[in-house]
């Protein structure tokens, strides 16, 4: 059972890391010399004047800009090489994937806290009443207490069979 749980945990971590798709930042010079001549740019998004996301041919690039002059140079270079480019100016802060996960976690947490306490109390009562050795009772109790929600589920899945 522990082997299956470790495999599931490794898969979940892999999916989380893959889904945190942060675009690589490139310099203005690298973009104008290597990417701009080879791709058709369809959209240019300027976020707070610091970074520019450029979509073209299905690819997205984060161009790291130092100052407003670089931003204006990039806009003019893109407009001269590509006709009909959509330019979007945005003053929003990109919170990133972590903030969205945190917001979702905070809402889900409201529902999991009561469920966790009910499961913990039931698991501790069943651990105390079980006929296993004292060191196993202590181990199951520590797992149930120190691994919120999942510790109780682990006990119900593995501990009853022991």
Tell me the layout of helices and strands.
Blueprint: H1 2-19, E1 25-27, H2 28-35, E2 43-47, E3 51-56, E4 59-64, H3 68-81, E5 86-90, H4 96-129, H5 134-146, H6 150-159
Parallel strand pairs: 1-4, 2-5
Antiparallel strand pairs: 2-3, 3-4
Helix pairs in contact: 4-5, 4-6, 5-6
Care to describe what's here?
The chain is of the alpha/beta class and 162 residues long. The protein has 2 domains: 1-93, Signal recognition particle alu RNA binding heterodimer, srp9/1 (2-Layer Sandwich), CATH 3.30.720; 96-159, no CATH class. Helices cover 60% and strands 15% of the residues. It has helices at 2-19, 28-35, 68-81, 96-129, 134-146, 150-159, and strands spanning 25-27, 43-47, 51-56, 59-64, 86-90. The chain has a 5-stranded mixed sheet. Strand 3 and strand 4 (59-64) form a beta hairpin. Helix 4 crosses helix 6 (150-159). The protein is rod-shaped. It is found in: Cell membrane. Its main location: membrane. Keywords: Cell membrane, Membrane, Transmembrane, Transmembrane helix.
Give the tags.
162 residues, alpha/beta, Signal recognition particle alu RNA binding heterodimer, srp9/1, 2 domains, 6 helices, transmembrane helix, transmembrane, cell membrane, CLS_N
Short description:
This protein is α/β, with parallel strands linked by helices. It has six helices and five strands; from the N terminus they run αβαβββαβααα. It has a five-stranded mixed β-sheet.
